[in-house]
Amino acid sequence: MIRKNPRGDLPVVHESAFVDPTAILCGRVVVEQDVFIGPYAVIRADETDTNGEIEPIVIGAHSYIQDGVVIHSKSGAAVTIGSHTSIAHRAIVHGPCSVGDRVFIGFNSVLFNCSVGVGCVVRHNAVVDGCDLPEGFYVPSTVRIGPATDLATIPKVSASAAEFSEDVAQTNNRLVRGYRRIANEL
């Protein structure tokens, strides 16, 4: 469902993207080309700052927003999801937040008030809160990264983790084409 926020902003969705009919996109949301937004995802840019302004939530080209993902922002802050990035089932991305290109965010993970660098992998049930994760870092499942975390203790992404992320991104491209092809069959 595509709908306005109380300020009157409507999402802008590239014609090559696929948005599942059960997903909700509300407000100042920009969905770039060949993006897949799965069932029951909610992407909501509706809160304003003290001046009544809202920064956009941008989903970069060829990204994969899976089932039940929630992307929102506090007080109109920006959220940017890079290109070729995968956000897995039921993850929460809450702005202010910036996620780089070719990033994988695992099931049930939470990102808040942070930036996640290019090529990072954040595995399932992990939390990144209040810090900047540099390019190429690997956050294991159930680990919490915050402002006091010594990033020297966080490993770099292995070749196998990078291959997994690329495989998920390729799956996205196939799904977008497939779902777009059958969109009018119902």
From TrEMBL:
Keyword Transferase attributed: yes
Protein name, as recorded: Carbonic anhydrase/acetyltransferase-like protein (Isoleucine patch superfamily)
Similarity comment text for this entry: Belongs to the gamma-class carbonic anhydrase family.
Signal peptide extent: none
Keywords recorded for this protein, A-Z: Transferase
Family annotation (Gene3D superfamilies): Hexapeptide repeat proteins
Protein origin, superkingdom: Bacteria
Single Gene Ontology MF annotation: transferase activity
Pfam families: Hexapep
InterPro entries (alphabetical): CA_gamma_LbH, Gamma-CA, Hexapep, Trimer_LpxA-like_sf
Protein species of origin: Paraburkholderia bannensis
Transferase recorded as keyword: yes
